[in-house]
Amino acid sequence: MPAPDLVTAALTLTGRITTASNATFLGSIGDVVVVYKPIAGESPLWDFPHGTLAHREVAAYLVSQAFSWDVVPHTWLRDGPMGEGMVQLWQEQDPAQCAVNLVAADHVPETGWKHVLEGRDENGRMVALVHEDSPALRRMAVFDMVVNNADRKGDHILAMTDGHRHGVDHGLTFHRDHKLRTVLWGWLGDALTAEERDGIDRVSEGLHGGLGRNLAHLLSAEEIATLAARCARLRLAGRFPAPSGEMSAVPWPLF
After folding, report:
1. Burial of 58 by CB count in 10 Å (0-12 exposed, 13-18 middle, 19+ buried)?
2. Which of 84, 96, 210, 220 is the most exposed place for a label (fewest CB within 10 A)?
3. 195 shares a domain with 119
4. Please, what is the angle between helix 135-147 and helix 194-206, to 10°?
5. Domain count of the fold of the chain
C-alpha cells in the first residue's frame, strides 16, 4: 500500500493528550500516527503573538533540518478537523531510558551524567536535577540556544531505543528577546565541538538561502534577524553560555 499524502490525505483524530497546555490530539493519516495541534486551540500568552505557536513548531523543524541532526521529528502545517495546525510524526520513545531525571542529592551518578541544580521535593527531601552527558543531548542543547527555546522541559526530550534523542513541543521559540529556559545546563562553559560549530554554520548559511525563504512564511523579519544574531554570537563565543537576565533559567515545572 502506498504511503498517504501527509498534507492532503484525511487526518483522523484518535485521542487527546490532556497533559498539554494547548489543545493537542493524537491522530492518524492512513496508517501514519501523528500529533495534531490546531491553531484554534492555542492558549493566549502575554509574550508570544497569539496564533503563532504552530508556525514556530514548523520553523523549529526547518532549523533542525538545517543543523542535519534530526532533533525535531518531521513537522508541517496542514488543515485538520479543527482547522489549520501543526502536525508532527509520532515518536515511540523507549520507556526503559531516561535522558533527564530527578535523583536523591546524595546519589548523583559520578559518570555519564551532568548535575544541573538541587532543590527540595514535595516531601522536603533534597533532590538533584541531572541529565545524561551524551553527544545527542549536547546537540539538542545547541539547537535550543539557537532557536531560543523558552520551554525545554525534561518530558520534551524523547529517548529513543537506538540512543537518539528527539525534542518536541517547540511552540515557545524564536522570540526576539532572550527567553532560553531549559533543563540542559550541564555543559555550561564547555567549548563547542567542531561538529557543533559546523551545525551552527549550516544554519547561518541557510538563512541566506532556502532556510531563510521558508522561515519568512512562519516568523517575522525581526525574529529571523535575531535568529541570525544568536548564531553569530554563539559561534563567536565558541562555548556553551551561562544563564543571563532576570528570568528563571529553567522552565517550571521541570517536567
Report:
1. buried
2. 96
3. no
4. 30
5. 2
